[in-house]
């Protein structure tokens, strides 16, 4: 892959929308190209900054007071205009209640101008007043996780290294990722180690152990820190925070709760 192709794919890759063979080709290029590695890091940093709302600022008190005064004056000048119905959650937050376009009261125009003057308009669409950055990060992690699992299921092969031998899988990770997971096959207990891959979840490249149980595929994402979710479900698939021999991990699968608990128990007891 060349730099020109790679740079055009970075955002698609971060959104988890690149198919697996293209993602692998891009990763191979990024691993060997400092420019594209820097571009990927910058794009990821921007994505995190937007997600964490670092660009969102509250209006200063003086400005809010001026707006309040202007609002009162505007209402006095136009009898019959309804007062703002959305109560401000704090004195620093300007009430912003969307109304039909043709009936925009004067106070709303002023409030909207205040928001736009802070360049925060776009972020208000993204952030409800009560939504914390933590919740956004958890939601992003959850989306990445299920997208990764479904992308792998749709691929020709859900693994990059195919082996039921942990002596092959563990060293394969060791050369590619900082955190090399504990790897064990549980074929005799009904959970066959199929192999491993590396995927991009929650802003990190993480090791994924792939198991099979009957018709079910199980992805175990070994994480550098605790998962931001304890449990999540989507379209019949479940994600559960677990530990793999003391390492933090998340298991994603369509197995039932009993089967999930059984594999989670086996993984937790790994040394
Ligand atoms: Zn490059």
Give a written overview of the molecule.
The protein is an alpha+beta fold and 271 residues long. The protein folds into 3 domains: 3-52, no CATH class; 61-126, no CATH class; 133-268, no CATH class. Helices cover 45% and strands 18% of the residues. It is built from 9 helices and 7 strands. Strands 1-2-3-4-7-6-5 form a 7-stranded antiparallel β-sheet, with helices on both faces. Strand 3 and strand 4 (216-222) form a beta hairpin. The radius of gyration is 25 Å and the shape is elongated. The model is unreliable at 83-88 and 95-101 (pLDDT under 50). Bound molecules: zinc ion. The site of zinc ion (ZN) has 6 residues, from helix 1 and helix 3.
Record the SSE blueprint.
Elements: H1 3-14, H2 20-32, H3 34-52, H4 61-77, H5 106-117, H6 121-126, H7 133-154, E1 161-162, H8 166-174, E2 192-201, E3 204-213, E4 216-222, E5 231-234, E6 237-244, E7 247-253, H9 257-268
Antiparallel strand pairs: 1-2, 2-3, 3-4, 4-7, 5-6, 6-7
Bound molecules: zinc ion.
Number of helices: 9
Give a count of the beta strands, DSSP E runs of length 2 or more: 7
Please bin the fraction of helical residues: 40-55%
Give the number of domains: 3
Which sequence of SSEs, written as H and E, runs from N to C?
HHHHHHHEHEEEEEEH
Radius of gyration over all CA atoms, rounded: 25 Å
- Characterize the quaternary organization of these chains: single chain
Biggest β-sheet description: 7 strands, antiparallel
What's the overall average pLDDT, rounded? 79
Query: Could you say which overall geometry the principal axes of the C-alpha atoms support?
Result: elongated
Q: List unreliable stretches of 5+ residues.
A: 83-88, 95-101
In order across it, which strands form the biggest sheet? 1-2-3-4-7-6-5
Q: Which ligands accompany this protein?
A: zinc ion
Distance between the termini: 40 Å
| Broad structural category | alpha+beta
Beta content comes to: 15-25%
């Amino acid at each position: 892959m060349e730099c020109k192709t790679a740079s055009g794919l970075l955002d698609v890759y971060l959104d988890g929308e690149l198919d697996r063979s293209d993602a692998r080709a891009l990763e191979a290029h990024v691993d060997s190209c400092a420019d594209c590695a820097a571009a990927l890091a910058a794009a990821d940093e921007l994505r995190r900054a937007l997600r964490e709302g670092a660009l969102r600022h509250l209006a200063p008190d003086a400005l809010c007071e001026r707006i309040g005064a202007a609002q009162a004056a505007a209402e006095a000048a136009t009898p019959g205009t309804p007062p703002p119905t959305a109560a401000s959650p704090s004195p620093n937050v300007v009430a912003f209640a969307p109304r039909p376009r043709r009936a925009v009261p004067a106070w709303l125009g002023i409030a909207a101008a205040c928001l736009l003057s802070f360049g925060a308009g776009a972020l208000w669409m993204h952030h409800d007043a009560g939504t914390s950055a933590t919740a956004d990060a958890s939601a992003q992690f959850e989306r990445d996780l299920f997208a990764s699992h479904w992308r792998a299921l749709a691929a020709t092969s859900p693994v990059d290294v195919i082996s039921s031998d942990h002596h092959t899988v563990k060293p394969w990770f060791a050369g590619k990722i900082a955190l090399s997971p504990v790897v064990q096959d549980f074929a005799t207990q009904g959970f066959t180690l199929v192999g491993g891959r590396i995927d991009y979840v929650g802003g990190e490249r993480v090791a994924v152990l792939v198991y099979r149980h009957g018709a079910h595929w199980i992805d175990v994402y070994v994480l550098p820190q605790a998962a931001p979710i304890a449990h999540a479900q989507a379209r019949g698939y479940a994600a559960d925070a677990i530990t793999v021999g003391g390492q933090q991990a998340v298991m994603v699968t369509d197995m039932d709760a009993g089967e999930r608990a059984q594999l989670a128990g086996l993984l937790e007891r790994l040394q």
